[in-house]
Amino acid sequence: MRFSTALAMTATLTATTVALVPAAASAHGGAPPQIPTAGGYGGAVSTVDPTATAVGLDVLRRGGNAVDAAVAAAATLGVTEPFSAGIGGGGFFVYYDAKHRKVHTIDGRESGPATMTEDIFVDPADGLPYDFAEARVSGLSVGTPGTLATWEAATGKWGTRSLGSLLQPAAKVADRGFAVDATFRQQIADNAAPFAQFDSTRELYLPGGAPPAVGSVHRNPDLADTYRLIARRGTGVFYRGPVAADIVRTVQNPPVADDPAAPWAYPIRPGDLRLSDLANYRLRFPAPTRSDYRGLTVYGMSTPSSGGTAVGEALNILERTDLSEVSRTQALHQYLESSALSFADRNRYVGAYTPQPVLDRLISDRWARQRACQIDPAQALTKPVPPGDITASGCTPARAGGKVEDGQSTTNLTVADRWGNVVEYTLTIEQTGGNAMVVPGRGFLLNNELTDFNFTPTQGSAPDPNLPGPNKRPRSSMSPTIVLKDGRPFLALGSPGGATIITTVLQVLVNRIDLGMTLPEAMAAPRASQRNTAAVQAEPAFIAQYGPGLGGLGHTFTPVAELGAATAIEFGRGGRMIASAEPARRGGGAAGVVHPRR
Ligand code: GLU
């Protein structure tokens, strides 16, 4: 089992933080507030970071729409949350257009090089897959970033401001700096060994050889310059010009330090991303996934994300039981079982090239019937459960398979404007710290998204839909979700957390829609994640509260400090919005509204 390092790495990301942001961090000179819940009118923003939320609200107050605010906030997260997201990565943007009452999506996922082969993560020396850490900290793991193209397309299609103007607040934050908090420091400390391998990364993040102190001011003038260069000359500098050249050079010749302070256990392998890969990068605009749930319509992200189909399938299974009528233990049992079944099917069938009829089948009510019939209200299924056989009818399971995926990187934001437009956007550079290489002179980290491919086949004798291939995009779990009621927004939400994103989004939906919780309660409630593994990963508070009851049905638990870092907005009557962020996870998020009162 060569994935142990990945698990160890993610297990360390449990630090809490303090809300400490100095005047220097604010777009308007004052320290932005960090509150997890805000109710009001005229627009709302929820992100993991007070500075990004303040920037988004500022754009809304100046008359920008949700798309403008989301892009400005995302660019700011590239500065203040650089280990989770930035222009070196990709993501999925879901947009509800109030005027046309239509949901659109942008697939800005990273794509692999044209030369990528199925065995890219198999060591030619011994025929075994690389250790995760070896694959991650390499040029092999870097896909062509889609984030900047996403911002350009979103603003061009639906925004009212130029991309250049929306990059300015973030450039200002990068120039002036912001106070290092405990999460920022911890994320560097957890990456100290890989960051120390590269001159460019250690200069930026290990000043004097150590992570910066909490409370010190972190500046990133190179990133400010990169944002301003893009603002002046357009995204061509990134995909075809000097920034493209620097990205390719970094991937092909990693900027390895001569004297890394900390040893690294692996050779640092170059990748084969080329200028032509960047020049040929294209966004996709797939139709959203759609499933009906108790009278609501749930829109999610289609492939290459598995989020939309996995959340949709689990909801369809759950819909077969009235969760508000059963005990809390039974409701949570149904939640865990539906999630395990959905994950088995996702692992077996969902990848970048899954045919549409298969995706449609997976989120059909007929399929939900075939899968729901396997759930025993009195006894947990033995995990891993086999995937269903989509060529069969009835309750027959097929073969076993599947791997445990995990992760805590990535960031999510939710924005709504006074016109009723809504953006749900999840963006990432994959692991916290991406592939650990800052592009020299440009101030941003590169992604390691290609490690989201399966390194070797996981489905036994059945085909694995998520193996690497030329120009292919790795399967994601990102699940930006917009729920409509009678054709108008009711709830928008999303989260980071690798494959736990799917269960976090599902659990918040169940908490809010079925279990009688308000949105802030649904967000704060302790979480559990059943991804078709023997034991359920769960937060300690969940185990304390529900462990005995669920244990009686045969569930076992592995404690994890926290799951997800969600953001959400709920829409009420008369234009009222409730913006909600995490009260505590990952140091707490920041929600805000344009007008607290009507
Ligand atoms: N790369 C992951 C995905 O696309 C997200 C990483 C994370 O959230 O930790 O599913």
UniProtKB/TrEMBL annotation:
Pathway(s) per entry: Sulfur metabolism; glutathione metabolism
Pfam families named in the record: G_glu_transpept (PF01019)
Disordered: annotated span: 380-409, 455-478
Keywords from the named record: Acyltransferase, Glutathione biosynthesis, Hydrolase, Signal, Transferase, Zymogen
Annotated Gene3D superfamilies: 1.10.246.130, 3.60.20.40
GO biological process: glutathione biosynthetic process; glutathione catabolic process
InterPro entries: GGT_bact, GGT_lsub, GGT_peptidase, GGT_ssub_C, Ntn_hydrolases_N
Reactions it catalyzes: an S-substituted glutathione + H2O = an S-substituted L-cysteinylglycine + L-glutamate; an N-terminal (5-L-glutamyl)-[peptide] + an alpha-amino acid = 5-L-glutamyl amino acid + an N-terminal L-alpha-aminoacyl-[peptide]; glutathione + H2O = L-cysteinylglycine + L-glutamate
Record's signal peptide: 1-27
Residues at the catalytic site: T410 (nucleophile)
PTM summary: Cleaved by autocatalysis into a large and a small subunit.
E.C. numbers: 2.3.2.2, 3.4.19.13
Record: residues binding L-glutamate: R109, D452, S476, S477, G498
GO function terms (MF aspect): glutathione hydrolase activity; leukotriene C4 gamma-glutamyl transferase activity
Family: Belongs to the gamma-glutamyltransferase family.
Alphabetized PANTHER family for the sequence: GLUTATHIONE HYDROLASE, GLUTATHIONE HYDROLASE PROENZYME
Subunit comment: This enzyme consists of two polypeptide chains, which are synthesized in precursor form from a single polypeptide.
Name of the protein described by the UniProt record: Glutathione hydrolase proenzyme
Organism this protein belongs to: Actinoplanes auranticolor
Gene: ggt_2
